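hey so i finally got around to running the thing on that chain from the lab meeting. sorry it took forever, my laptop kept dying and i had to restart like 3 times. anyway pasting the input first so we r on the same page abt which one it is
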Amino acid sequence: MTAEINKGPALGQRHVQAFLLFLSIVCNYMAKFNAGVAVVAMTDSENTNPDFPEYDWNEMERSYILSSFFWGYIMTQFLGGWLCRRYGARITMFISTIGSALLILLPPVCVSWGGWEAYCVIRVCQGLFQGLLFPCIHAHLANWCPVNERNRLGALANTGIDCGTLMAMFVSGQLAASSMGWPGIFYISSVFGIVWCVIWLIFGANTPRECKFISEAELNYIETSINSNRKVEEVKAKSQIPVPWRAIWTSVPFWALMIVRCCQSWGYSTLQTEMPAYMNGVLLMDMKSNAIYSALPYLTSWVMAFVYLIVCDILLTRKIMTLTGIRKTVNTLALWIPAFALIGIGFLDSNQKTLAIVLMCADVGINAGSTIGSTINTIDLSPNHAGILMGIVNTASNVIPILTPLLVGIIVKDNHDRVQWQIVFIISAVVFFVGNLIYIIFGQMTNQPWDAADFLDTTQATKLQEEGQQAKAIEASQNPSTTSDNNIEKTETS
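ok and heres what got predicted. didnt touch it at all, straight out
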């Protein structure tokens, strides 16, 4: 009979840390994606609050604004991974969020004299700060999640993506139409971020051992689980473990993960940034209803994230499916079904608003499974280098949201032209399909050999040994008489 493991309180500090990560994503995603609604409100005051300035920005200028965040975002992903290894997630995430929260106060002041260019500069700077975030989140999860709870806590934290996008769409639309007008979008987002920073400084901790509030039982449970598959000499600070860059860049499972995350980013970013414009231009919805219906798919996504989480947790704990089976199955559902839904959306017009909303809800809701399907695969491949892996993957995948608004700006010359939007959605569907196919074939959900703390030492020792053997073989081939004498000597000795 197996002794029951003492996991500490039912609601422990590992759950608190996961919840804080959830809130950090919510705050930062509100600041990141409220531009989709803000830009529509700032260029169409008739459908919002006419008491505030309106700007005459064309579709290409709006596309520059939407993509500019990612110009900065991709520049600091590696830096985020390095800072997290050097100083820990606590201070790095604080800097990331407080910087973004303060910058989002600037558009109402700066856009009036600097135009759309000033807004772009502000969003580039926001992106620089927020680029530090996700490498820290994945490294923090690797430090805090017991192995058998990694799927659950990782997915719970990442549901902040859906909740943050929901808040960005819904709250921003309501604020734009309220007495606060579109400037209220920026002020409320900033307040949320600042409040989170205060809470994080009180309760956040880099590791369970550094946490002031954790029980001894929970500390032992987390450390025992995380370290159970490692040799004693491997259990040391992650900052002391050298990064096996060559092994990472030549790893097929890592490339499969990076490709599928880029393809996921393509389809998802198209919907996130362009949905308000599509609903306003093709479906002819005003700002208030636009905000409600733009947010509805992300409410569906948030709910579906918990459905996926519960179902996958049952399948895994009862050993009905392996982790590999769960990840690949869920990711297939999350990308292939939305691929067909995207194509369907492009063939609907303003007379089919209800069906369009249903398809968009299905599209974004079912796509929520990609969190469990592939997002937290970084921790499967390498808990020791999860932050670094996330920095690389997030850099690559967030080049895509720079391109998609610009591509829309090139293809969609008339915001009311349904045929032009069809092209945008069909391209996204094809990218979804191909990316997941690569992940099915080449993706893996097991610790890679290069995750070991002594991997580079072992590799170097093996290389030196092989070089020594090769040198001896060359010497022997060049001096056959010496080899013959040695053989005779051995025979006589025998």
